[in-house]
Every structure is written in structure tokens, then in C-alpha cells.
Amino acid sequence: MSPPTIVLIDSTDTLPAQHDQPREDRRVQGAPQRKTWTLHEAGPMSAGVWECEPGRWRIVFAPERQEFFHVLQGRVRLHDAAGAYTEIGPGQGAVIPPGFEGEFEVLEAVRKQFVLVDLGG
Known about the structure:
mainly beta, Jelly Rolls, 9 strands
């Protein structure tokens, strides 16, 4: 059995991406193309790189799911259900907590690193 190795969450140059768009019934503005590179999956955690064109759509996080992300380039806004928003840009990170409902808005084409954790339950 080989020992565990460190996984770098950076280069996606040689890896295929998963392409998708927000579901039509969740779109608020535009129909942005999204790319996801999942570079690590173990138990309740996955991590990788995500890119998206400008647009806005509704999001609903399950009570057991949360996400940490770090913006490498571009700018996003997370709008909560009450209408307040938080803007995140290059060099900044944020956590989307379990049960969050609101809207995800990409203001400038974004590239971010992400870590998703399912708490179970």
C-alpha cells in the first residue's frame, strides 16, 4: 500500500472539465457556462477549481452541505434571502453555510478554488 500523497488544487491545463449551466428554472440573469475540475474526492469532501461566465441564479444549499471557496480572479456576489449581499474578489475567500438560500451572481468571469463538505445527517 502506498502512502497518501498531497493533492495540489491548482493546474487544470491537462485535465478535462465538466461543463454545465445553472438549471433553467433557477436562472435570474443570463445562462452562464460553468466549468468544474474536481481534483480530489475523499469521504464527505471534494475540492477543485471552478470557472464561470457572468450571470445570476438561485442557489439552495442542503442542511448538511457547506462550501469554502477562494477567488483567484473575477468577482462574485452572494445574495441572501433577505436581499443583503456579500461581494468576493481576487484573494478573498468565503464560506457558504449549510442551509443557505439566495442567489449566486458572477459579476466578472470568475475562477475559484473550492472545497465542498457534506456533514451527513
